[in-house]
Amino acid sequence: MKLEINNLSKQYSNGVRALTDVSLTIDKGMFGLLGPNGAGKSTLMRILATLQDADSGSAILGGTDVLNNKDEVRKVLGYLPQEFGVYPRTSAIDLLDHLALLKGFGNTKERKEMVNYLLNKVNLFEIRKKAVGSYSGGMRQRFGIAQCLIGNPKLVIVDEPTAGLDPGERNRFYNILSEIGENIIVILSTHIVQDVRELCTQMAILDKGKVLFSGNTDDALQQIKGKVWERKVDKAELSHFQNEYKIISSKLVGGKPLIHAFSDKDLNNGFTKAEENLEDVFFVKLNELA
Ligand code: ADP
């Protein structure tokens, strides 16, 4: 199954153009939608999750018109929104059971089996009887994934899922997601480059409602190969370098700025070639350095 998005546009009533002619082809596997805050990621995710209408364009999921057959799409969709509200006093097992019932699983025995299976899958079975409100951020996100998976979806959409998770929780979350992504389409929307680097083979970069890049992550890296240079500088020199070079990023390493610069030609002057990474691609595209 494939998701084909063609020329999707959306303008809010306050005049903000959240999406302009967005076209993407998304295959089975993990797809990373990377963009800074305000890029339009949530708007796109909500449209694909049938919660919002687009002004124009189309999205076709394996032959089904997403924008005009919402009920059809909802049967094969799992969605973890950015703000996932829960009933805090309800236990995970009861809440999941309730959500499965709402999704149309009327047969009690089958539903219970599915709920237990999902709680196991996201490693919450041991604490299934605890109130979801007492869960840590990571546990709550794992619960969010469990509810996404009710009914074996073909398309799973997760919006900024790792914000606020500590590294251990983030790893557990990554592992669950990548397992899911082996068989179905998973779209991961995030402003965190590391999420995409670790999980996704396909990706797009969105900024100001427009697609700046789409393709596989290796191709993205290939586009800047051999053109990223690095150098440690003194803090006092930083603005000089920012004026003289196409600076991709500047990070403190041991208290001293380490800059990455973009150049087709050799940069002498103390620069050495850096191993290009996805964060370089992100900033090169965002700041139109190439
Ligand atoms: P992201 O998820 O990448 O942070 P969003 O899709 O939330 O981006 O927002 C894209 C743009 O649309 C932003 O400028 C945001 O302020 C604006 N926006 C989002 N939702 C609404 C809304 N309901 N009404 C008006 N403007 C909105």
Keywords:
Rossmann fold; 290 residues; alpha/beta; 4-stranded antiparallel β-sheet; binds adenosine-5'-diphosphate
Q: Can you offer a commentary on this structure?
A:
This protein is an alpha/beta fold and 290 residues long. The protein folds into 2 domains: 2-220, Rossmann fold (3-Layer(aba) Sandwich), CATH 3.40.50.300; 225-286. The protein is 32% helix and 29% strand. The longest helix has 14 residues, at 108-121. The two termini are 34 Å apart. The mean pLDDT is 93. The structure holds adenosine-5'-diphosphate (ADP).
Radius of gyration: 21 Å
* β-sheet strand percentage: 25-35%
Report the uncertain regions.
none
Q: Output the CATH topology of the largest domain.
A: Rossmann fold
Q: Let me know the average pLDDT.
A: 93
Quick summary of this structure?
This protein is α/β, with parallel strands linked by helices.
Can you lay out the helices and strands and say which pair or pack?
Layout: E1 3-11, E2 17-26, E3 29-34, H1 41-48, E4 56-61, E5 64-65, H2 70-75, E6 77-80, H3 92-102, H4 108-121, H5 137-148, E7 155-159, H6 167-180, E8 185-190, H7 193-199, E9 202-207, E10 210-216, H8 217-222, E11 228-232, H9 238-244, E12 246-253, E13 256-262, E14 272-273, H10 278-286
Parallel strand pairs: 3-8, 3-9, 6-7, 7-8
Antiparallel strand pairs: 1-2, 1-4, 4-5, 9-10, 11-13, 11-14, 12-13
The structure holds adenosine-5'-diphosphate (ADP).
